[in-house]
């Protein structure tokens, strides 16, 4: 019985935490869908990379970004004596900011074709970069 109640509470909390997520418009294609395409249009849309290196006649480009987001709520309680000496329990909910990071890594061959394009990070953290790929 306790396990079932804990599971219900956990599932409800997960639903509450993800309930605020909204996707507007079309979701950008995953970066893996760019394999085989010309790399130059991607470079033009993403702008100058944070780093680049020559590898075997091709090149590897890296872009990094970060976003500040609120964590899951944390509820603590304090005791207040503001009502004339009678202790009152006061719940306090806080959201601690957390930084999420993203790295996009584009690898092109000597002919300028994408051989690999991966993202390391959540879609939310990568959105400042991947949104540029869907812009005209």
Q: Let me know the number of strands.
A: 6
* Major sheet strand order: 1-2-5-6
**Can you write the helix and strand succession as a string?**
HHEEEEEEH
Unreliably modeled segments? 1-28
The total tally of domains equals: 1
In DSSP terms (H or I, runs of 4 or more residues), the helix count works out at 3
**Roughly how many Å is the radius of gyration?**
23 Å
The portion of residues assigned to helices is 25-40%
Shape designation? rod-shaped
What characterizes the major β-sheet? 4 strands, antiparallel
Overview of this structure, please?
Strands 1-2-5-6 form a 4-stranded antiparallel beta sheet, covered by helices on one side. Strands 3-4 form a two-stranded antiparallel sheet. It has one domain (29-134). The relative contact order is 0.21. The model is unreliable at 1-28 (pLDDT under 50). The chain has 136 residues and is an alpha+beta fold. Helices cover 26% and strands 38% of the residues.
Concise overview:
With 136 residues, this protein is of the alpha+beta class. The protein is 26% helix and 38% strand. Residues 1-28 have low confidence and may be disordered.
Features:
rod-shaped; about 25% helix; single chain; about 140 residues; disordered N terminus; 4-stranded antiparallel β-sheet; alpha+beta
């Amino acid at each position: 019985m306790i396990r079932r109640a804990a599971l219900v509470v956990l599932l409800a909390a997960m639903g509450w935490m993800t309930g605020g997520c909204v996707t507007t418009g079309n979701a950008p294609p995953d970066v893996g869908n760019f394999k085989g395409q010309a790399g130059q249009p991607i470079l033009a849309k993403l702008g100058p990379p944070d780093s680049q290196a020559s590898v075997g006649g091709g090149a590897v480009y890296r872009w990094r970004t970060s976003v500040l987001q609120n964590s899951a709520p944390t509820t603590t309680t304090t005791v207040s004596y503001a009502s004339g000496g009678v202790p009152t329990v006061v719940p306090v909910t806080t959201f601690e900011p957390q930084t999420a990071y993203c790295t996009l890594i584009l690898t092109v061959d000597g002919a300028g074709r994408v051989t690999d394009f991966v993202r390391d990070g959540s879609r939310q953290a990568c959105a400042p970069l991947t949104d540029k790929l869907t812009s005209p």
